[in-house]
C-alpha cells in the first residue's frame, strides 16, 4: 500500500467518512434506533437513580461495546451479502457468529446494568 504524507486535511476527510458511516448506520439499520432508545433509557435511569462516577464509566463502556459490536455485525452482514447472494453454510456460520458476538455484548451490558441498578431500585 502506498504510504501517504500526514495532512490535517486528510485526517479531517477520514473523520468525515467515519461520521458518514455512523449516519448510514442510523439510516439503514433498525437496530441502531433500538440501541439509541436503550442508550437514552439507561442514561435517563442513571440520572434518576444517581449512579457513581465508576458506575457511569462501566455503563458507558458496556453501551459502547454493544454499539461497536452491532456496527461490526452490520459490516460483516453487508460484506457477506456482497460476496455472494447464494445461500452457503459458511456464510450462515459467519453471520450467525457475528450476531452471536452482538448477543454476548448485549448480555454483558444487561449484566452490568443489573449489577448497578438492582440494588438501587429494590
Ligand atoms: N447467504 C446465506 N447463506 C446461508 N445463511 C444465510 C445467508 N444469509 C443469511 N443467512 C442466515 O439468515 C440469518 C439472517 O441473515 P440476514 O442477513 O437476514 O440478517 P438479519 O436478519 O438482517 O440480521 P440483523 O437482524 O442482525 O440485521 C443469518 O444469521 C444466517 O443464519
TrEMBL record:
Mn(2+), Zn(2+), Cd(2+) and Co(2+) support activity to lesser extents. Substrate binds at residues 70, 99. ATP binds at residues 29, 77, 95-96. GO terms for biological process: phospholipid biosynthetic process. InterPro entries: DAGK (IPR000829), DAGK_sf (IPR036945), UDPK (IPR033717). It comes from the Bacteria. A divalent metal cation binds at residues 29, 77. Keywords: ATP-binding, Cell membrane, Kinase, Lipid biosynthesis, Lipid metabolism, Magnesium, Membrane, Metal-binding, Nucleotide-binding, Phospholipid biosynthesis, Phospholipid metabolism, Transferase, Transmembrane, Transmembrane helix. It is a multi-pass membrane protein. It holds the Pfam family DAGK_prokar. GO terms for cellular component: plasma membrane. Its cofactor is Mg(2+). PANTHER family: DIACYLGLYCEROL KINASE. This is Diacylglycerol kinase.
Amino acid at each position: 500500500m502506498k504510504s501517504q504524507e500526514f495532512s490535517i486535511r486528510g485526517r479531517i476527510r477520514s473523520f468525515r467518512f467515519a461520521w458518514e458511516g455512523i449516519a448510514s448506520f442510523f439510516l439503514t439499520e433498525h437496530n441502531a434506533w433500538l440501541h439509541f432508545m436503550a442508550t437514552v433509557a439507561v442514561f435517563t435511569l442513571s440520572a434518576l437513580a444517581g449512579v457513581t462516577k465508576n458506575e457511569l464509566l462501566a455503563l458507558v463502556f458496556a453501551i459502547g461495546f454493544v454499539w461497536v459490536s452491532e456496527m461490526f455485525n452490520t459490516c460483516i452482514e453487508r460484506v457477506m451479502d456482497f460476496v455472494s447472494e447464494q445461500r452457503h453454510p459458511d456464510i450462515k456460520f459467519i453471520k450467525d457468529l457475528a450476531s452471536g458476538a452482538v448477543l454476548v455484548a448485549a448480555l454483558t451490558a444487561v449484566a452490568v446494568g443489573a449489577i448497578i441498578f438492582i440494588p438501587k431500585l429494590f
